[in-house]
Every structure is written in C-alpha cells, then in structure tokens.
User: Fold these one by one.
Assistant:
Number 1:
Amino acid sequence: MWSLSFLLGPALLAAVSQAGKTPYDEYILAPSTRNLVPETIYQINGSVSNADVLTSPGSGNATFNGPASVTFDFGRNIGGIVSLDIASASSSAAFVGVTFTESSLWINSEACDATADAGFDSPLWFPVGQGPGKYTAEKKHLRGAFRYMTVVTNTTASVSVRSVRVKYTAAPTQDLRAYNGYFHSDDELINRIWYAGAYTLQLCTIEPSTGDSLTTLGEISSIDNITLPETVPWYNNYTISNGSTVLTDGAKRDRLIWPGDMSIAVESAAVSTGDLESVKNALEALFSQQKTNGRLPYAGRPFTDRVSFTYHLHSLVGVSDYYRLTGDRTWLSRYWNQYKRGVQWALSSVDQTGLANITASADWLRFGMGAHNIEANAILYYVLDQAQDLASTLHDQTATNWSSIASGIKTAANQRLWDSDAGLYRDNETTTLYPQDGNVWAIKANLTLSEKQSSIVSSSLRSRWGPYGAPAPEAGKTVSPFISGFELQAHYLAGNADAALALMRTQWGFMLDDPRMTNSTFIEGYSTDGSLVYAPYNNDPRISHAHGWSAGTTAALTFYTAGLHLTGPAGSTWKFAPQPGNLTDVDAGFSTQLGAFSTTFSKTDDGFQRVSFNAPNGTTGDVELVGAKGSLVSRKGRRVELVDGKAKGLAGGHWELK
C-alpha cells in the first residue's frame, strides 16, 4: 500500500506529523478508541438468535437459548476489561461466562488459554439472573491479551444480550495512534512487520497495578496434570512499579518486568511509540530490588528471587540504552552508584582465565547456562564497553580496570571458545553446542576480532536456518524471536543486510501471517518444525502471543535499514548509515528530545538515489553511504564531498545527496 506521504520530503513529513497526522498511520494496529466491540463472529455453538447484532451494538438483542456459545473475533490481539449489557434472563439462576484466547487453537467454552505452568485459565462468570443491566469484570480480571472471546451460557435459561464490549487498557498513558516514529519501504511485508512490532510493545505496556499476581507460582508446576473441567484461577492485580505506566515482558503473561526482554523492547519502543516513561519506571523498579552486594533481580516483583548473571547484565544494558535514547543525565547520575555496584558484582565472577565463570543457570529459559559461557561473557564485554562510555560522560575515573578486564574477556573468549572449523563460538569449553545467543552477542558486542570473523559467524548462522526461522539449539528445537532479534542486529553489523531482511521475511513473516497467530502481535517462541510448541514449557496454551522480546524488527529497521543511529545521548551525535539490502525505497523517522531524525532514499543497482536526511539542529554526525559518490548539500548551501561514501562532522539539519 503506497501513500502520498512517501513522496514528501522529511521536513514536510515532520510538519505533517506535528500537525497531528502520523505518517503511514494506515499501518498502525492500535485501535482509535478504547471502547471496543467485536469485529466479527468466529463461530456459534447451540441456539443463538441475532448473534450478529453484538458486532454492531444498538441494532437489537442477541438471545442465547439454553446451553450455547458465540466466539467473537476482534480482528487483532487486544487487552482489557469485558462488559456485558444484559436485556433479560428467564431465570434468576442464569449465568453468562466469558473465555479468552490469543490463538484460535485454544478457543473453548470451558476455559481460557493459559497463564500457569499447567492447565487452562478459568472463565469469568457473571450472575446475569440478578436482572438486566451492565455486568463488568473486576479490574483484577482484566485480560491482558486476546483476539478471540467466547460468550457462553450453560443453563437452560434464555438470556438476551444487548452488547458485548471491552475497555482497552493497554498503553494506558499513550495516545494510541499518535506514534513518535514511522517506517515505510517498497516491501509491504516488511512494513507490516515494523508496525506489528510496535503494536506488540503497546499491548505489553500496562498500568502498573495490573501485573500478574502469580498466585499459582510454586503451587502449580509443569509436571502437574490439570484437565478440564478443572481450571486455574488468575489475577492481574499486583503493583509491579511506581508511576502510571510500565513496560512488561508480555501482555497475557507474565505482565512483569523482565530485564532481558527489555534489551530488545526498549529500542523498538523508542523509535515507534516513543514511550520511554514506561521504560524508566521498569528500570527503577528493578534497581529498587538491588541487593547490598550489587546483584540485580532476575525479574521484577512478585517473581521469585533467583540469581541470573545474564539478566543482571541486561538491567545494566537497560541503563545505557535509556540514557542513549533520552539523554537524561540527571537520571543517570541518580543511579550511577547502583550501576557501578552492579558492574562490580558481575566482575566478581571473572576468574584467572579472563572469563566470567557462571554458576547460576537462570537465563532466557535456554538450557546449559554455566561455566565460561560465550553468551554471558559477550554480554559482559558489551556492558563494560557501555560502562566506560557512561563513566566518561559523568567524569568518573574510579573504575580504571574496566578496560583491561574487557580486553582479557575478548582475548580469552577467542582463544578458548572460537571454533574456526565451525565458524562459530562454542557455548563453553566442554561442549560441542554452538549457540545462537552467544554467537549473535559476540558480533553485537564486538567480541569478534575482525570484520571477516563477524562475516563468517553471520554466514554460519544463516546456513542453519529452517523454513520457520533461525534455530536456537541451546533451547532444544526452538525458534526464539528474542535471540533472533539480536541475530538481526548481528547480520547488519556484519554487513549482511540481505540476511537480516531474509530472516525478517521468513521468521517474522511466519509469526505475522500464520492463521494460528494473532496476525497483529509477535509470539514468544515456537518449534523449529513450525508447531506452536515452546521447548521450555510443557503447557502449550501458556505461550504468549504478544511478547516484547519478539519486537526487535522495529528498531532494526529504523536503526540499520534506514540508518538512523544515535551515537550520543538523545542523538547529540549520530551516524547516518543506511543498509537497505534488497529494498529499493525507504522512508523512516523518529524523534528524541532534541528533535526529529528522518530520511528518505531509493537504491537501485546503480547505488543510492534521491537521498535526503534530517537531524536536529545543534547535533553533529557522520555519514556512510556505501558505494555512493557526489556531495552532501545542506539546505543552507553547504557542500561536503563524500570520500569513499563517507563524510564526518556534519552539522544537524537537512541534507541531500547531489
């Protein structure tokens, strides 16, 4: 779907956006109102007359005659509080039940899909025999994500229903369709993937008092056998942070703060909705749980306190990401001492080999975390690199050993874990497993020794792909959109943009368009054979179909495909280095507190064409247009000649390639 706005220059696009029109808003999946009614009827069981009127309230009543059910389809994944407006019931003992599911696989009149380690979630029951009127679920029974909702009667009573509505509660402080960023290209699937990632994050952003209370944690395990008609109660009424909004892992579950998930979600939120208040509240909640020895939690409250080396590091990644995206130096200063204690806790695991020796197995539910693990050490190397930049920002010279420790990690990892025959890093010194996570992080963290080595890893990873995406063998027969989000970055960093786009089309295209999915948000994980089975879980209905860690495509397309990189806080310094791969047209942008970053360009076999980009006044940056010749010309007439496609030290403003 092409839009006239594709033909507009970035400055004009910015003006249009400021006037209240978000570019390419036809792709935005968020609803235009928080008062939702079902779009269509998916199926009817039993005797229900005039069921269609419930998709257009005010046109009459639907009547359920005895045991019956109607399954409604909202057309996309949504979340909120259900209300029924009852016209009449023939018996004072009449009840109406409601069940929810994200995937059509789990449509059921007896139960919802699942949030616990075993069993299905309980329906909501409304005592409609008490008389006509509106029956609304309690806030604690807000359902965080569902596309399908089944309304069921289970007695011989006749019940007439005026309307079925849902109050949409996700992204509670956002103007749902007023995005901060936009993306468009000549590939419709890629465009839809960008916006589905953004919408996934909106659904995962919640009012803090509606976190999962985890009442079954420790009570129900994956080895339990809970079969219908028995179901599992569920409650979304735990306060997980301060503030009025917070970013969580998943919309249905866990509705908690998980730092690993944030290492993908934060950047994608920044370039789409721009909601970084939710990120700040999540980070502050994690740091409020820091132990006196510096250790940060595996997950936010009320999850059980466990040691996780990698997720501890992800909280530190969150700090550097947040500062780079916001430039909030006051906030960074407030948490700096806690951040440093967190770094020191991680460094206490570095042994005489130069590598961190991991003794805690908790990670993203991959198997075999421990010993001199490549993923853990690559993330630690990345954190140390970021930590040095933050220390420089705050003029802190106390941590003088960070650089030497980082150097030791890089040397030891390549000596002990690199396998030149496989073209990949081993998981640790005693295994033949070549993990996805550690290898993609090795490129992301710049743990590799050369561009050639990064290219080898990129090619080796691509050679393992199956028909449904990139495997994560460290988690069994699993495709992990979380780790694959980092793999996208790795391919771009290795100069392999075509591989990144191919993985998006294969893996995220499958997640977006398969009929078992929500066709609007991205699933937590699935099997390499395409079945909706996630190896770390025994309870398939539990899988989340709106998981923020699966939204990495949104940031990857903005930062790498469009080339809009922030290298300094809030983009005070930047780099414009587009990698469109086999896309021929790209138009993208987003804003920070300093102003708008945007670009529009075409690329043919002859190279870049019709290139223009904007950066805020008062900023400076570099440009890298591979293969391009000519000069960059500013709106003020300044001309800078490209040398090998590069230019350095450009002032912010509007530039065009001539």
Number 2:
Amino acid sequence: AKLSGGVAVIKVGAATETELKEKKLRIEDALNATRAAVEEGIVSGGGTALVNVQKVVDALELEGDLATGAKIVSRSLEEPLRQIAENAGLEGSVIVARLKSEEKGIGYNAATDEWVNMIEAGIVDPTKVTRSALQNAASVSALLLTTEAVVADKPAPVAPPMPGMDPGMGMM
C-alpha cells in the first residue's frame, strides 16, 4: 500500500480468482473498520471493553422489569469473550472471571494464549462497530420480547457416529 495526498492505493494479487476475491473482501472489511475507527475511535478488542462496561450496568439501581433487563444485558456483555475463549478450547467462564479481576485494558489474546494490554497488542475494535452491535442486539431483543410467535427452522437431527470396525478384522 502507498499513501500519497490522502489517497491510498492498494494493489492486490493472488494465484486464483477465489483467493483474489477473499483478499479483496478482507481489504474492504479492513477499510470499513478503519473508517469506523476514524469516526468514533477504538476500544480494547476481544470482548474486553464489553466486560469492562458490565460494571457500569451492574451499578444501576433499578427495580422490577428494568432490573431484570439490566441483568440480561449485563450477562450478554460477557458472551463475546466467552465465545472467543471457547473457540480457543478454553472454559469461557474462567476467562471471563479472570478478566474481571484484571486491570482495565488487559485482556485475553486467544491467538497467543496470553494476557496482554489489548490496545498495545493491536487488538482493538472500532467503537462504532461495538456500539452498533449493542444497539442492534437490543433492538432485536425488544422485538422478540414483544412478539407472540417466532418462526424458525426445525433443527436437523444429529446422525449417530459411525460404528467402529471389528478389531480382529473378522472378514480377512
């Protein structure tokens, strides 16, 4: 990439058309994330910022349905980090609990299996993306709560695993 006069020129090459399309999509995603970061800034990534915000939600003094809603929102703020940990083969609850005891800005880097300062390590999310995700999740949740019925696809039954072979190879 070359930057001149406020314009970036990015040349992308690949061995196959499929690989080229994949690279192009990744570059477009990076460009959109960069634009979002320029608009509203960045927060520590990997779900760290959301768990840090959880303390503010938990401190709200609410009653009745509002308190129930705040508890649901608070629990949902842990889910991105929990999923990242589980995708890395770890117990999500353990990682979330440890993050709560760490100082602000420290988070779990699943790629290196280390606890690092997320911003210094370059693990960041655009604030706009994080905010939009929360707003959209709240909107969908509110819609589901006020809906009397939801139509969904019936899950396909899981086939049993293939049986093992005869250890003695009986037919040979």
Number 3:
Amino acid sequence: MKTTLPAFDQAIRSHDDLLKRRGLVIWIGAEPTFTDRHSEAAEWLYDALGPTKEASARRMLAELLTQAPGAAVLRTLGRQYPKEDQPRWNLGLYRRRNDQPVWSGPPDPLQVGEPLIASPALLEEFWERLAQRLGARSWTALLFSVETHPSLRIVFRRDQLPLLANPERDPRLARPSPHGQPIPSSGIRDELAEQGTYLLGIDWPDPQRGLDDVAVPVVELPACDEPEFFMSLLEAISEAARDVGLPGLVLTGFPPPVDASVAWTTVTPDPAVVEANMAPALDATEFLRESRTGFAAAAAAGLAPYRLHYNGQITDSGGGGHLTLGGPNPESSPFLVQPQLLPALLDYFNRHPALSFLFAGDFVGSFGQSPRPDERTIDIFEELGLALDLLKRQRNPTPDLIWQSLSPFLADPSGNSHRTEINIEKLWNPWLPGRGQLGLVEFRAFRMPPTPERLTALVVLLRAIAAMLAQAPYTPKLVHWGRTLHDRFALPFYLRTDLWEVLDDLASAGLGLGQPVMEELLDESYHWFGEVEFCGCRLTVRRAMEFWPLLGDAFAQEHGASRLVDASTARLEVSLRARPGMAQEALADCQLTVNGYLLPLRREEEMDGETWLYGLRYRRFKPWTGLHPTLQAQGAIELVLSHPQWPGALQVTLHEWRPRGGGYDGLPSDREEAAKRRTERFVTEVLETAPATPPLQPPPGAITPYCFDLRRL
C-alpha cells in the first residue's frame, strides 16, 4: 500500500526534485540551539558553560544515537573563545552516510545512562591488545609510558619508516593532553600526525577534566587526515576493547576528518544554549528528517527551542538558528562553481530587507548578531558597490579573489567578521586554520525556529534563492535605503510585503515553494501582540523590530561572550483593516490616538483591501545603565479608536507587565499559560462616547514617515 506523504513533506520533496532536474547541487546545514526554558541559571541565560549544561548535552546526544546505530561517540576538542583558558567540551556522533557501522566496541557511558565500571587490571591489558590490533594492520606500533596524563601511550606509523618511542629524544611523545591546553592562535595542530606519526593516549579519566560520568578507560585520538584511515583506527580500538571485555570506553582527542562520505554531528555549549551543529544534508528531505530527530532529542533531554518569559512573551532559545549552504566538498560548493552567486546573493539580500529582519531574533541592527553591509558606514557601502562591479568584470574569478574581494565588507562596524548577516569565514578563508576553506556560506539573520518544519522552510527559502540566482544573469544594483531601512522595514507589514516579492520572484523562476512551505514562512505568531474588532473594523497590534544601540566601546567588548546594549526601547505596529461589510473608504475617517496624540496612519493597498498602519516607539523599562538617564519607563500605552459616525469608541491599553501590578507566580508552565498572560496585557474597553477633546498633534521631532516616537513627548 502506497503511503501518502503529509502536504509539507510533499512540498519539500517537490523542491528537491526541482533542483535535481536543474542539475543543482546545494547541500544545507544548520546550527539549531536549545535551552532549558525552566531555568534562570546563568548558563541558560547568558553564560556558555555551567554545572548542568554538559549533562543536558549528553542526554541529547544519547537520544540522537538511538537513531544512528553504529555511530561512534567522540568527545573531542571544542572551540575556544577569547578570554577562555582552554577549549570547550564538544560531544559528537561520527557515522557513515551509507549507514554502515563505524563503531562496534563498548558504549560510551553517556549512552547507557548508568555508571560503567571497568576493572583496574583491564587498562594495561587493553593497552597491549590495542598495539597488537594495530600491528595486525601492518602498522608499526610501539608501547611506552610517561608521567603526563594520559600515561599509557602507543605511537604508530602506517608506512615502514623507522619509529621512535623515546620521549627523551622526542619530547612531543610526552605532550600533555590537548584538552587541558589553550588552542594556539595558529589553530588546532597535531605536529606528530602531520609527519605521519600517530600518538594514542590511554588512561583512566583525568579528574581535572570533569568527566564525572566516566569510570572506564579513555582513549585520546590523534588527528587523522582521511576518514577511511580514521575508521580503520576506530575498528582496531573496537576490536581490542571487545577482546579484553571492557564494559565501556570513552574516545577523546582531536576532531575527526570529514568528507562527503561521513556525517559529523556535534552538540556544544554556547551562551544560554546548547548548540547542535547538524551534519550537512544533501537535500531538504534529508534535512527535514534530521531536524525532526534533533528536535525530538532535545525535547527528550528537557531542552526547548524557545523561552517563555514572565509576562508571557515568547522568544527563541537565545542562541539563534543559523543556516549554511555549500556543497559535498569545497570544490563543489555552488559559491565556487558559480562565481557570480555570492555577489548576486549580497545584492539580492540588500534589495530585500525581509530576508534580514523578518526571521531574525531581537538583536538586530549595526551591533546585533547579523548586521547588513549597509548598516555600517555609507563609505563602506559604496566601496561594496565598487567591489561587486569589479568582480562582475572578471570572467572566472578564483575562490581566493571572491573571498578577498568581499570579506572586508561582511563584518560588523567593529570589524568582527563573525557577526554579519552573510558570513563567509568558512568559504575560502586562508586565515582560519582547518575550517576556513570549506566552501560554506553561513546565514545568521535567523532566530531559532520553534519547530523542525519551520527550520526546514527557512532553509528551503535560502536554497531556492541560491538556485534562482545561480542560473540567472547578474547585474549589480545595490539600494541605499538610508533611514528607511530602520523605519519602514522595522514594521512587520512591510517585511511581509517584501517577502511576498521574494516568493513571487521564485515562482516566476519556476522555483515556487508550495503552499505548505509558504504558510510556515508567513506565520506571524512571533510578532503577534493582540487583535480586537469594533464596529466592522479590526485593530491589530504586532511587535515590530527595534535596533538597540551598543553602549560604550565596541572594540573593548569584542572579547566577551556578549555585548552591552540598551534594550529598553520597544516598537509596535498598529494597523486597521475593514471587516467584511464595512466600506473600505470608511477607514479613512477613522481616528486613532495614542496617549491622547493623533496617530498619522498610512494607507497601504493589499490584494484583499486597504490597511492603515503606523509604528510606535516607547521606553518599556529604565535600565540600570543605558542611554537617556532622565527618561523614565513610559508605562501603559493607551489607544483610542473612534469614527465620526460611531456612537462610542474603543479603548485598547497595552501593558508590558500584568495590569494589576505585582510579580508573576513563576515562569509560564506552558505555551497556553504564556498566551493567557499576553492576553491579560491587551486590555480592551468599549467607551460609550468618543473623547470630547480634540487629539493633540505629535511634535515634529517625534514623527518619521513610518513611526511615532513616544520617548520625545
């Protein structure tokens, strides 16, 4: 019996089929992040490390492993960031894409969920047996011991060259574990492995490393340059461990080699979240399947892709949901195979701010997590235009030229090349050892989506845009938006209108996304505040984008995990639409006031009628440190909607906190409770008569073409 796919899954498969018919190969990846939404500990609010985060990550990895039998669990070196004295922990699953097993040895203790204890006598027996298993592969292997942890060591070569096992003559053989050492500025290097000499370390867990779930031997792996060699080494370790009857084993050391034949998924710590670095997927169908697996594993570990705040507001996890596009290998990256693609992508994103803001988190703007090139200085933006023109003149620009031409413009105002909307640090970067020349482009203007379907819809949107631009002639035509960028495109209405233009472009190019995918992309629940109907008119309030300013010196804050901004300002979009039966022209006579001031609504045409709308800015709280020390929090916002022919009026009061004051009884237990608290803050009242006094006119300095700044009253 033929199984019918759900409509969303079918739309994803149709997208894959479209790209296959066009001969396009675009692999996709993501870095979804999850948090403990019930915790208010520092590690789940702003710190990268903490006492419970690694245990949560272990549970998540154990759940992932249930869907990847035969995968190897590796606890390898993680990333090290400024002001950190050693690398972070990093948990990963290493598997073949053809599902053939790479590990047949005893489990890592995190898989079992209960203590595994090995007999002390087994350590040396395993050490000696492993050397024999290496020798059985015609590799030359020698045993020796050192005083440094790990104390039992095996040095081996795969060729027939002479081998030395004397730490006194070669001190590198007695090197300390890389896990407890800072990563040098040149990057992670295994100097012995670079010369064809491989060093294995074997010991009981190092108590200084915090392996509190481990009471079995630990093997420290060398750097390996080829996946087949690495998997052969894993096989030898598996055999030796089974030979001596080890109940469990932990594999640590250098990160493993990766190519198109293997999938390497990691779970790592990041400020406020656990980040899952998904193995790149060859198409969207695979991506959807792996995303569902990842979300389910996070949920089983007690982690969520969102946070529920005291006042009922829902935000993402706090770590974003960054997406990547590339190829099966660097040379096959669409950005290098089609040299015009990256310039065309920069141009297209510039012309469509919806791609920068509509799906972004709260930290947007010049010093947010994903600033656009035109959010730097006008001089830099004009130079970008020249760079694109010069690249256009090159018939076949090399990867080096593409990266050198565009990388200076893809950074934030302080020069941080990581915090940028379109990140090419891993495209063809000679200054990022080991990770810089992967042919990857990362898209950072994405908050963490609440579901795997939404995540997949976003990556399909990016993939379809890349496919469209890869096969279309490109002519640079950057738009300098000026103040309009942070005025007009702060409002969800204009962002959604702009997104529709993108969707229309895709449809015209034969790459339409299908209704189920578009519904995910057009969902507006993230920006929703409240809605009410009155006298045939619908008044809707949405959260809009706000661009928080950085406090102090940007460069001085570059080495921290976060930067200090004044987040006290909020922006709302207020809109009016006629309900069926109400004449469209009647909207023009409606009057909407905010705190007694007339709101100069803008009239916009849509396919199904008119919308009248405007933005509001206000100070929602007074920060302990920030801009404008004399400006107080502005409390509740009062909207009054009236019409000359209506007998009464509608009053809507918007609160940042519970209207009756006082604290909440803990965080919301679930989304339903959060919705109740949001609804409580959207207070409506029908007035028997409209206000008798005429509304006040906003002072000129408080009005922009799209927004009324209440802070200036």
